[in-house]
Amino acid sequence: MKLTELFKAKKFALTSEVGPPKGWQTQKMLEEIECVRGKVAALNVTDLQSAAMRLGSLVTCRILLDKDFEPILQITTRDRNRLSLQSELLGAAAFGIKNILCLTGDHPVMGDHPDAMPVFDLDSVSLLYAASTLMNGKDLSGNELEGEKPDFCLGCVVNPGADPLEPQLIKLKKKIKAGARFVQTQAVYEPDKFAVFMEKVRKVVGDIPVMAGVVLLKSAGMAKFMNKNVAGVHVPDKFIEEMTFPKGTPEEKKKEKSVEIGVRLVKELTPLCQGIHFMPLGWDDCVAGIIDRLLNGRANH
Questions:
Q1: Three-state DSSP class for 93?
Q2: Helix intervals (H) in the chain
Q3: Residue 295: predicted pLDDT
Q4: Do residues 100 and 89 lie in contact, with contact meaning Cβ atoms separated by under 8 Å?
Q5: Which domain, by its residues, includes 178?
Q6: What are phi and psi of 288, to 5 degrees?
Q7: Domain count along the chain
Q8: pTM more than 0.85
Q9: What is the mean pLDDT of residues 221-240?
Q10: How far apart are alpha carbons 267 and 83 in whole angstroms?
């Protein structure tokens, strides 16, 4: 089923994420994501993630469509003004891309071109509004669009671990009002705290699906880095200990443990939300492994 159909039927949805290559050739990327074909409903294509220059999200989404994957187009407001953003959205419609995740984006100083001039003409809320306006047949200046109106399934993000949480909830309410129809969260590693968050957020989103974000752990160092540098994300000590390996440990061993942790997290998060969004950071085979183990577990019961 398509992502929109899963949401409409109120069924649990699984999605994953893919970063376009640092170049124009996509064969390696396509080979890496082949393992999740048929296991996830859609693939979220990052838009110059961490403000690093890469192949564009829109063209990558079109390539995925041509390979029979359903893409979710990420669009950030960091690099484009409102003219370009609206044009990009129309380009998505022309390509048949319906799923759009609207983000503000990381500041260029965090990326590999720190001297790049940021734009931020719009933010994530006003980008959602712009997309909704296009769906109503007009641009932001009120000019009528020619032909058929675009049809999007608009998504937004929220950070359930933010402290204080109230500003996140206030902004999420604005995003929903602006047109968001699904929500993806920042990485979640503490299901008990996520349960408390969901009690609060349900009053804001109503029956709009919320997908819990799961970033696959690759090492103890990565976990410690996120704890120190990623706002609202806390990897518990138990996971850091599990991902601590002796020097020279094969990558496959690390992947096995990452899959084990992922399975446990998904099992605990599933009753609390309407979907899981995996962020594998290149370990797409681990996403496939997690899903296979979860499905086998159901079959054994």
A1: helix
A2: 3-8, 27-33, 57-66, 82-95, 124-135, 166-178, 191-205, 220-229, 237-242, 251-269, 284-300
A3: 86
A4: yes
A5: 3-300
A6: -60, -40
A7: 1
A8: yes
A9: 95
A10: 43
